[in-house]
Amino acid sequence: MGKYIECLYARNIGKYKEAKVKFNEKFNFLVGANGCGKTTLIKYMAIILNPGRANVFRYGDNATVWADYNDDGKSIRVGLGEGWVREGSDYRKASHNMWVAPQMDDNISATYAVSDLEEKGINFAPLILGAYRRIEYQEIEGMKKEALPIQKRNYYREQSISSVEGGYLPNVKQWMINRYFEIEKEWAYKYRENWDWIIDNLSAVSPFGKDFSFKEIKKDLEPIFMLKGKECYLEELSAGFQAVLSLIFAIVEWIESVNDEENLSIQRAAGTVFIDELDVHLHPEWQLIIRGMLDKIFPKLQFIITTHSPHLIASAYAGEIIKIPSGENVIDIAPSNKCYSGWSTDEILEDVMEVKNLENKKYNIVLKKAMEHIMNKDIKGIQRSIEELDLIVHPNNTIVNEIKIKLAELLLED
């Protein structure tokens, strides 16, 4: 039981003649070579949610796009069937033609256009977060009235393309101020439960552990944090902290705004969060822990994440990596059973991300030359190579140590 996206499908839209991607109900990392179509897949989801922004793609004949959604054990299909888009003669001139539900399959209980959902009582408003995650300073004048869940669901669907393209980020500072001054009210006990859960888990978001915490909000309405014993305002935090906190607070704001009262709890909230380029602004140490952090804070959510980071890929569990083949316009892919936790960064870059020019790295060039000197028993050449390698490798590099042993053997022979 749960609420998560099982499959995403598109035909004759953008770069793909046909694309089908299956997801598991927890973490899904979309990876592959640069330009393989990771962000395109998220845009397909955004078009399902807001067909009014059809002009972000070019369309072929019989274009259709849909997502299969598991709604507490019942699979429904939400999307747009053939004829939904009016094609324009010029690039980026396509427009929404009419609401058309997608085709039916045997394993699907019902099909809907997104315009049908509220009438049917279906809460389907995934959160889409683009790569822009900087918290710009803004002065908050006070608490702000919050919209009703149905209004917020429509709002998130309308903002889906803007989110992918980096032009929209929820107002996390306003959310913090609202909650800080509401949680002592008797009617706000569920908000207080969520606030306590987040504040208690802030140490999990930082590589510094308990050296990071929330302190207070004073009458100037500026949230204050403690970092390594020093006070910091929200906007003074590093780009890494801002990226992580904007993600967490944006997810909490989404949970609390699109759900009815009985489904407000962070620990029990279900649904799907798309994050484009999760690794943006994050130090490698953060990239290694952020999957576990999101899992701990949001234990029931589904995440669909794009990334270029070998550290994030190494942190994924078996069954969480979805590799997108490059150079193909027809794909049918699903999570792999592979786990890359024991792979080196270079191995992941070559095999998963399809980086082809690692041989041009200075280390590889010097190492190749050192091997040639060893084959030729060129002692002076080996010595020069060792001097160069010592400047660019870790002191405990095993290959360089083996070269030094080989040099010693040649010196003894000589």
Helical content (DSSP H or I, runs of 4+): 25-40%
> How many β-strands, per DSSP?
16
CATH structural class of the largest domain: Alpha Beta
Distance between the termini: 73 Å
Helix run count: 13
In CATH, the homologous superfamily of the largest domain goes by the name P-loop containing nucleotide triphosphate hydrolases
Envelope shape: globular
- Number of spatially distinct domains: 2
Assembly classification: single chain
Could you say what the CATH topology of the largest domain is called? Rossmann fold
> What are the segments in which pLDDT stays under 50 over at least 5 consecutive residues?
none
Strand order of the largest sheet: 8-5-4-1-2-16
Beta-strand percentage?
Answer: 15-25%
The gist of it:
The chain is an alpha/beta fold. The chain has helices at residues 38-49, 117-120, 149-158, 160-164, 172-182, 189-200, 239-258, 284-297, 310-315, 345-351, 362-375, 379-392, 398-413; strands at 3-13, 16-22, 27-31, 59-71, 74-80, 85-86, 95-96, 110-112, 127-129, 212-217, 223-227, 230-233, 272-275, 302-306, 321-323, 330-333. It is built from 13 helices and 16 strands.
